[in-house]
Design brief:
Helix content is 35%, strand content 15%. The protein has 316 residues and is α/β, with parallel strands linked by helices. It folds into two domains: 2-97 and 289-307, Rossmann fold (3-Layer(aba) Sandwich); 99-280, Rossmann fold, CATH 3.40.50.720. The chain has a seven-stranded parallel beta sheet, with helices on both faces. Helix 10 (218-223) links the parallel strand 9 and strand 10. Helix 1 runs parallel beside helix 12. The structure holds nicotinamide-adenine-dinucleotide (NAD).
Length: 316
């Protein structure tokens, strides 16, 4: 059995596969060498990817032996799952393995929105000691609105509640009897607009699908409080970036934290880079040492199981 890994995996994942007697070919940059990838992929029983490798129709046509696609993460927008299933190929993902990391990133973002310690540090090192300028605001009794109430939102809700925040959420597929609402005290709202109008922070936790593309655009941004911050750790494309630029230009919102963008890595000509209150990170919300070990181990184990004809709970 042979497994092809096209993006970064932690050593523990490779060792797990090898201990199962599986041959591993690992090139962390193969996702960027499309021609080579298309040429060699036909020799493998499984392929393990992150979010950069396009596992599309063109690639799947080349995969005559492929039985399993492993996704080191949870977003599936780079994989043609329908086509894979048609070909009888299993798709497994690292269900829930980086949700805690993303939730902690969201808390870091909202804390830094109101207490920008890095800016204060810069001032002090530049010789300023201005306590008034750096007067912050508490999170206590502020409202966070969660768009999408799945696994990550659940963990954000628990942490925000511990800070004494009001947590409201919108998800048309969740009812008041679901765990996140029943157990975390999230107040569920029946429309997206109620979240936009009432929140001091809005955090997006939906997958990128045709129905969530540009979910946050001109009208939605205009509905937000001018003092509110938007946080996107889900996927680029869910916020309309042109509309976001206009909104920041017109001071319609206080700021935005963008871990994900429509085009990654960021295009240097992206106008959003010009705004001081647009804070970027290079798609790292789910990226911590703990989550990467967890993800690598989980995906390697589940791919190994499927190659041996066993069942996996992580099949999509
Ligand atoms: P999940 O599947 O547990 O939850 C997604 C929720 O979105 C579901 O409850 C679903 O009902 C809801 N939803 C779907 N369409 C909606 C809509 N139009 N309006 C409101 N709610 C809607 O997913 P999750 O584990 O919470 O992850 C969410 C997303 O976060 C993933 O799809 C992935 O793209 C992204 N993610 C990013 C990182 C990162 O490093 N930045 C890491 C992990 C996940």
């Amino acid at each position: 059995m042979k497994v092809l890994i096209t993006e970064v995996i932690w050593d523990q994942g490779i060792t797990t596969l090898q201990e199962e007697g599986i041959e591993v070919y690992y090139d962390k940059d193969l996702w960027a060498k499309r021609e080579t990838l298309l040429e060699i992929v036909k020799d493998f029983d499984a392929i393990i990817v992150r979010n950069q490798t396009k596992v599309d129709q063109e690639l799947l046509i080349e995969c005559t032996k492929l039985k399993v696609i492993g996704r080191l993460g949870v977003g599936l927008d780079n994989i043609d799952v329908v086509k894979a299933k048609e070909k009888g190929i299993h798709v497994v993902m690292a269900r829930h393995a980086n949700a805690t990391s993303v939730a902690e990133y969201v808390m870091a973002a909202i804390l830094s929105a109101k207490r920008p310690i890095h800016e204060a540090n810069e001032d002090v090192k530049n010789g300023y000691w201005d306590r008034r300028k750096h007067t912050g605001e508490e999170l206590y009794q502020k409202t966070i609105g969660l768009i999408g109430l799945g696994e990550i939102a659940h963990r954000v809700a628990k942490r925000a509640t511990a800070f004494g925040m009001e947590v409201i959420g919108y998800d048309p597929f969740i009812t008041e009897y679901d765990h996140i609402v029943a157990e975390t005290g999230v107040r569920i709202k029946s429309s997206l607009d109620e979240i936009l109008v009432n929140s001091d922070f809005i955090s997006i936790h939906v997958p990128l699908t045709p129905s969530t593309k540009d979910l946050i655009s001109t009208q939605q941004l205009k509905s937000m409080k001018p003092s509110a911050f938007l946080i996107n750790t889900s996927r680029g494309g869910i916020i309309d970036e042109k509309a976001l630029c206009d909104s920041l230009m017109n001071h319609e919102i206080a700021g935005v934290f963008l871990d994900v963008l429509e085009s990654e890595p960021v295009d240097p000509s992206n106008k959003l880079l010009d705004f001081k209150n647009a804070i970027f990170s290079p798609h790292i919300a789910g990226l911590t040492t703990e989550s990467q070990i967890r993800i690598s181990l989980l995906v390697a184990k589940e791919v190994g199981k499927l190659l041996k004809g066993q069942k996996s709970l992580c099949v999509v």
